[in-house]
Amino acid sequence: MKAIIIGAGEVGFHIARRLAAENKQVLVIDKHQEVLSKVSERLDVDTLLGSGSSPRMLEQAGVKEADILIAATDSDEINLIACTFANILSPKIVKVARIRNAEYIEFQDKLARELLQIDIVINPEEEVIGSIKRLMGAPGAAEISEFSDVNIKLIGMWIRENTELKDYKLMDVKKKVGVPEFIIAAIIRGDKIIIPSGDNKIKAGDLIYFVCINKDLPTILKAFGSVAKVQRKIMIIGGGNIGYKLAADLEKQKGLQVKLLEQDKNRCDFLAENLNKTIVLHGDGRDQNLLQQENVGELDVVVTLTGDEENNVLCSLLTQNLGAGLTITRVNKLAYIPLMKTIGLEHVVSPRLAAANSILRHVRQGTVISSLSIKEEAEALEVIAKESSPLINKPIKHLDLPKEIIVLCIIRGESVMIPTGENYIYPGDRVVILSTSKNISKVEKALSGK
Predict the structure, then answer these.
(1) What are the chain's domains?
(2) Which tens digits make up the pLDDT trace of 128-155?
(3) Contact at 8 Å (CB) between 14 and 353?
(4) Are the CB atoms for 232 and 296 separated by under 8 Å?
(5) 210-222 in b/e burial notation, b at 16+ Cβ within 10 A?
(6) In 82-136, where do the E strands start and end?
(7) pLDDT digits (tens, 9 = 90+) for 390-404
(8) Is 432 helix (H, G, I), strand (E, B) or coil?
(9) 46 contacts 65 by C-beta, under 8 angstroms
C-alpha cells in the first residue's frame, strides 16, 4: 500500500511512524524543511517539500498511483483543498481528512458523499468527547475503546499494589473473574508489550488490556478491585470547543449536575447563553480557594480541558489532591502522555492522538472493519473472515501465525466466543485478532485471502 500524508505535525508524524513500522510505502508532504528533516532522520519514509494543497505537488507525489491520501495538517482549509485536487487527479484514491471546524462538520455528509467525495472525515474533538464519556461510564478503567459492535470493548486497566489478582497467572485470573467472554489481550510492563500466554502473571504497575462484553464490564472491574460509583457531580475546567460540546452532551443525560469553569469572561457569557442546565463559573481552575468554595472534594468527576496542557495537569493534580473522584486530563503533546502515570494522572485524553488513531482505523486493507491501537506497539483488528482466507475451516491451534498474533474473539451471528485452540473460524465470522505492529501486514493479507 502507498500512502501520501499531508502535514508532518504530531498527527502526521505519528501516522507515518505507525505505517512505516508496518513496512508500508509512505510519502510525507510538508512546507517546512525543518519538520521534514526530523521525519527523514527518524523514519524510513519519503518526504516532499511543498504545499499538499498544490495539484502539481500532488502529481509529483504520485497521487495517481497511491492507495490513500491522508490530509492531517492543522488547517481544515488546506485539508479540504488537498482532498479536492486529489479527487480530480485520482478519483479512486481513498481520501481521509482531519476537520475540526464545527461549521464544516455540520456539512460532513455532503463533504463525504456529494461535494468532495471524502471517504473519511475525522473530527478530533468528537473523538475526545467520546473517550471522556466512556471513561466516565467505567471509572476503574484507564482506556475504553469500542469495536464496530459497541457491545464488545477493549479495556485498558492499571494493576495496583492492592489489587487482589496481582501476581496471579492469567489462567487463574480468568477463573477468578468468572466471566466466560473475557480475555487479557496484552500487558504493558514499562516500555515493553507482552502478548501473553496462560502462564504469564500480572504484576503491580502493569497496564493490562482485555476484551469483554459490555454487560460483563462491571463484574470484571469489581474483580480487579474497582468499585463502580454513580457519576453525578461533574466539573469541566475549560470552556473551549471541547468543554462546551461535552457540557452540551451531558445536559442530555438525566440526573447529572454539571459545572463549567472558564477563565475568560466573554467566553463565560457565551457559555451561559448557550447552555441550559450547566452552571457556568468564571474563574481559574488553579485557584484553590475557588475550588474549595465549589466543594471540589465532593465531585465525582473533574475534566480539565483548557488549551494549555501544563494548566490542565496542574488543575487535575490540585483537584485530585482536594479529594475529587475521577480526574480526566487533556494533553496535546504526544510526548507527554507516557509521563502522566508517573505523576499520578491515569486518565488522559489527547485530540491529536485521538485523530491519529481514528485515521489509522480507516487505512487498513482487506476485510478489516475496525482497528483499535494498544499504545504504539500493537492493534486489535476486527475483521470479516473470507472464504478464500487460509485461516478458515481449521482449528486455531493449527493456524500458521507468529507468536505475536493471537485470536481474541469470534463473533458469529449474535454469539460472542472467546476461542480455545480447538475452535474454528468460518467464512463470514467477525474475528478480533491482536497483532504487533510489525505483523499487521501479514494479518491483512491472510484475511483478504492473499
Answers:
(1) 2-122 (3.40.50.720), 153-223 (3.30.70.1450), 233-349 (3.40.50.720), 356-448 (3.30.70.1450)
(2) 998 899 888 887 788 888 887 778 889 9
(3) yes
(4) no
(5) bbbbeebbeebbe
(6) 94-98, 120-122
(7) 888 889 888 877 778
(8) strand
(9) no
What percent of the chain is modeled with pLDDT above 70?
94
Placement of cell 470484571 in the chain: 220
- What is 172-209 written as a DSSP string? HHHHHHT-SSEEEEEEEETTEEE---TT-B--TT-EEE
List the one residue out of 83, 216, 209, 200 whose CA is nearest residue 144: 209
d(CA 132, CA 305): 11
Q: How far is CA 274 from the centre of its chain?
A: 29
Which residues on neighbouring strands pair with residue 209, listed in sequence order?
156, 186
Q: Which residues pair with 138 in a beta bridge?
A: none
Q: How far is CA 229 from the centre of its chain?
A: 24
Cell, residue 79: 485539508
pTM value is: 0.82
Cα 142 from Cα 346, distance rounded (Å): 6
